[in-house]
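Re: folding output
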Amino acid sequence: MKLLRKTAVKQVITETSKTDIADTFKKKKDQAINSIDQLAFEKRKLIKQHDFDPKLVESKFVKQEDKFKTQVSWYETQMEQLELLPIGSEIKIDEVEELIEISIGDDWSLMDQAREIVVEDGKIIRISG
């Protein structure tokens, strides 16, 4: 019988990976800021049209703006935390599903063990578990 098992993917922090992760966080933070700006523009446009109640327009946009503001804050926090991570530490970056084969008589405790794949600078360096 075949089963799917979740396997953690971790990344070893190096100077290169730290820079790559920081760049990714910055891009996503900038995208969220651009989305906030776009929402503000759309909101002003709808209010100026006088076709809609300004309070109703405002209330509809607040929830979306708050979502993007939360994202900006989250990315800023992640960037700060990334700076504190020492080189060589490992962080979880993903979780994948692994197909395993089990048979009658297999030791279940071995099947149930947590597994992880460790990546350093884009190369798998260890598979454990």
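--- second protein (sequence, then structure) ---
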Amino acid sequence: MTSDQDTFRRPAESPMEHSRRADGDADPATGAPCLAEAVHSEHAIQRQLLRALAAVVAEARDTSEFLQALADFSQRHFEREERAMARHRYPDGPAHCAEHRRLQDEIECLQALAASDKPVGDALVRFAAALQSHVEGADASLLAHVAGHAGRTASGGGPSA
């Protein structure tokens, strides 16, 4: 059996490879992944990072490497979503981006707690809940908008941005 740390370090596809592989809408000719697939996959990677981080916290080990990985990957994920918001003229973009900033601030708070040798367990639980709420609310709304936008474009309802 592998540890959470081993699972994080040897995923089937690294977060960097995934980030380079999928960046937007599906290309019917090539079968390139659509935005929804990429976003869902990235959410799974974020959950994997959080599980690994929780295991490190439970073992009272240094969390800095995992917190930095979470911060870096989340930043790339948020940037992908923000590009999609602009491309698809998402009307709730400003509020969604504000949620991204708030989540990034929470990650920075986790890093500051860890750097000061204060316990991060409770703050990590709150962050995981906030991230899940964001995924189920703001991200679901974005993906629904993109799917509707793509449908209107495919039926001749307007250009894709």
